[in-house]
Specification:
It is a single chain. The chain is of the alpha/beta class. The chain folds into two domains: 126 residues, Rossmann fold (3-Layer(aba) Sandwich), CATH 3.40.50.2300; 120 residues, Jelly Rolls (Sandwich), CATH 2.60.120. Helices cover 20% and strands 26% of the residues. The protein is built from six helices and eleven strands. The strands form two sheets. Strands 5, 6, 7, 8, 9, 10 and 11 form a seven-stranded antiparallel β-sheet that branches. Strands 2-1-3-4 form a four-stranded parallel β-sheet. The radius of gyration is 21 Å and the shape is elongated. Bound molecules: nickel (II) ion.
């Protein structure tokens, strides 16, 4: 399949460039530490992994690890579409801290070893252990806003809508589509919050797949797209029509003729979801790297 690697990056408005498209920045490693590694640090690690994707290395540990992740923390993160059910509390090691560029503690006191040259933050968060679910939800929301602020700091070019750097240049869908040289190879052309805006040209069919945690919006620009859905259903989209495939629903886009589309999907969304086929396009290539 032809690669988009030779597509000129300059054709993407600079203000729309997600961080991952910037010249190879080192990937920061972030370590979250709390006492039991069962609640706060697991929620923070879950958010950072989900929101920053592979732009950040994320790990967590505890000074006195518990036996299992707090079920209330698992439940309130599941409400956000983030699965931490299989995370296991682990003991903080000196190597953990040595590997990390950023260490964020949450009430572990002096148990966290300090190395020179690291960036340390201490987040004053309520300990969710033994608290009712409403309180745990509040802790979760507090953690999310702190993680979002951390991402802005660590990956400063990430926000496309940063008013200080945004240029007043519109993006032409037609011009972006003209840069696409291969079918089924989405091209990231912008970003709004945690969503990528992509364009793609389609012909034939992709593959049956699902995205466990993300819905996916298809907007047809030209042609006619059939999206086959599990349960022997399908939706047919013409120019100007869109459909959101709900998260977890198996689907297979089929284009009998050439179709041009705009896709809006969360930055964590994998091209072919839970399956990997020869035509699967990793996000780095969708970003033109
Ligand atoms: Ni999909």
């Amino acid at each position: 399949m032809p690669s988009l690697n030779d597509a000129p990056a300059a054709s993407i408005p600079a203000a729309s460039l997600p961080a991952a498209a910037a010249p190879a920045a080192p990937r920061p490693a972030v370590l979250f530490v709390c006492v039991h590694n069962a609640g706060r640090s697991q929620m923070a690690a879950g958010y950072l992994a989900a929101l920053a994707g592979d732009r950040v290395d994320v790990f967590s540990a505890g000074s006195e690890p518990g036996d299992a992740v707090n079920p209330a923390a698992v439940a309130v993160m599941a409400e956000e579409g983030i699965d931490i059910a299989h995370a296991e509390p682990r003991h903080l090691s000196v190597d953990d801290v040595r590997q990390a560029d950023v260490v964020i503690t949450m009430g572990c006191g002096d148990a966290c070893p300090i190395f020179p040259g690291k960036r340390y933050e201490d987040w004053a968060l309520t300990d969710p252990a033994g608290q009712p679910v409403d309180v745990v939800r509040g802790v979760r929301d507090d953690i999310r806003s702190r993680v979002e602020a951390l991402i802005e700091e660590l990956l400063p070019s990430a926000p496309a809508e940063d008013p200080a750097t945004a240029t007043a240049t519109p993006t032409s869908i037609a011009a972006e589509l003209a840069e696409v040289t291969a079918y089924w190879t989405p091209r990231v052309v912008g970003r709004v919050n945690d969503q990528y805006i992509k364009v793609a040209r389609l012909l034939g069919e992709l593959v049956w797949h699902a995205h466990e945690n993300e819905g996916e919006m298809f907007l047809v620009v030209s042609g006619q797209l059939v999206i086959q859905l599990e349960g022997e259903r399908e939706v047919t989209l013409g120019p100007g029509e869109f459909y959101v495939v709900p998260k977890g629903v198996r689907h297979n886009p089929v284009a009998a003729e050439e179709v041009e589309i705009v896709l809006i999907e969360t930055v964590t969304t994998a091209h072919t979801g839970d399956v990997v086929v020869a035509g699967t396009v990793p996000i780095a290539r969708q970003l033109g790297e």
